[in-house]
Amino acid sequence: MTKPVLKILSGPSPTKNAAGEAVLAGTSTLLSALGTAADLVPFDDEGLHQVLSFRVATARQAQQRSTWFGGRLYNLIIGEDADYVPLSGSHLKQTLLVCGIEPPDIVVNGGRYLLLVDYARQAIDVLDSRISK
Prior knowledge:
Blueprint: E1 6-10, H1 14-23, H2 30-40, H3 45-65, H4 69-78, E2 84-88, H5 89-98, E3 112-116, H6 117-132
Antiparallel strand pairs: 1-3, 2-3
């Protein structure tokens, strides 16, 4: 059975945003705001290459750990996946475009997604050739 190319972890929703604002009394922490802003700003080719390389290396480590029970349990607890890399919506769009794939309409900039590691590797290869020129 083939694995899906993309998994949706979460997307922004009015209910989620309203609940968050109610809990925080209308204020958000500086770190949360900076983290959200960093996820929305697109990378240049070198920045995207760096992020994808790190995420693929992390997935490779998760795959190596998954060969024994303790490693699979560790991956489950910390949320690492050997087959997928986590990306924000804006960075997922960039990665898909680098691979020559039109991003689906369901991908929103503020969402959280998992991309099949093979596509991240493909994007890294394309970025390698772009950067070396």
